[in-house]
Amino acid sequence: MLYVNNTETIDARFISAGTFIHEAGWTHQRRIIDSYELMLPIQGAVPMQVGENAYQLKPGALLVVPPNVPHAGAAPTATAVRFDWFHMTLPDVHAVTEPLVITEQINRAGLLLPNYTDELVMDRVYMIATQLLDVYQARGRQAYLQSILNSMLYEIAMQERIVLSKQAAGDEALQPVQDWLRIHARENINLNQIAAFFSYNPSYLSRLYKAKMHRTIGEEIEHFRLQAAETQLLETTKTVDQIARSVGYDDPKYFMRLFKKHENMTPTQFRKAYDRRHFNRA
HTH araC/xylS-type domain: which residues (predicted)? Predict the structure, then answer.
């Protein structure tokens, strides 16, 4: 569900903000408030019940509690928790519960605030949130606080619009990611680097890639590395150890186990079995 408005601008009214910290075993008390609350988890997982919906609020996600809706902890926290919270009013905002697609309404709206998401690049949101908390702590002017709050909401809206665009594009949106993996697979890369390069939330990219490409990103990197190894086995005289290191494996023994798992033969057996076929082809 999205909270949207009908104008290109956002006019949120700041009320209050803070950071909540507690040891394990804490349960959010049941409350009903007359404003919107934005929760940004920093540490630990907070089980929340908002109306009829349950959430496991973890770092990298955000949750919006709407006005006049009962909300409470769904269970005691298993570990220490820390989250930032922001209370605000959002004039002329309504909820969109239809399937999320790029529509004229969404393109026109200044505010695109998901009720829950773990698909955004939250580092950018945290940066603005920290500034807002600092200014509030320093008793900054209301106009300044509202300006920073609206900047944070614009950032969330921009990223949510990108997420919706990528969802609408489907598999095509992941083709650049796959191409990049093919080029860089032999390097020492990880999910966070890839997600940052393409402006994805890492956990969201991981789920999306698996769902659309039917391989995890780790499996895709492994696939491209083994493809490169097969080419070198057939087209060069490099040793297996040299090939292992050239495609990204510092441990040749691990590479050989992995190769055998995928090809049902060792690299040496592969070279012997296929080199004649390779060099005799027209």
Answer: 175-273
Type of residue at 175:
Q
Query: Distance between CA 97 and CA 115 in Å, rounded?
Result: 10
Q: How far is CA 114 from CA 64, 90, 143, 241, 254, in A?
A: 7, 13, 25, 50, 44
Burial class (CB in 10 A: 0-12, 13-18, 19+), 19: middle
CB 171 within 8 Å of CB 164: no
**Across the chain, which distance is largest between two alpha carbons, in Å?**
79
The Cα–Cα gap between 241 and 269 comes to: 14
Task: Copy the structure tokens of residue 187.
Answer: 């390097």
Distance spanning both ends of the chain, measured CA to CA: 58
Phi/psi at 72 (5° precision): -165, 165
Give the dihedral sign, CA 117/119/122/124.
negative
CB atoms within 10 A of CB 254: 11
Q: Residue 55 and residue 72: Cα distance in Å, rounded?
A: 11
Q: List, in sequence order, the alpha helices (H) in 138-216.
A: 142-169, 175-184, 191-197, 202-213
For residue 75, how many other CB atoms are within 10 A of its CB?
Answer: 14
For residue 243, the number of C-alpha atoms closer than 13 Å in the C-beta half-sphere is 23
d(CA 222, CA 248): 9
Q: pTM of this prediction? A: 0.70
* Burial class of residue 71 (count of CB atoms within 10 Å of its CB; 0-12, 13-18, 19+): buried
Q: Would you say the C-alpha torsion 114, 115, 120, 122 has a positive or negative sign?
A: positive
Task: Look up residue 55 and give its two tokens.
Answer: 């959430």
* Structural domains of the chain in order of their starting residue, each with its CATH number: 2-170 (2.60.120.280), 218-279 (1.10.10.60)
Average confidence (pLDDT) per 10 residues, the chain, 282 residues: 89 97 96 97 96 94 96 96 97 75 66 93 94 96 97 95 76 85 93 90 89 90 94 91 95 94 90 63 41
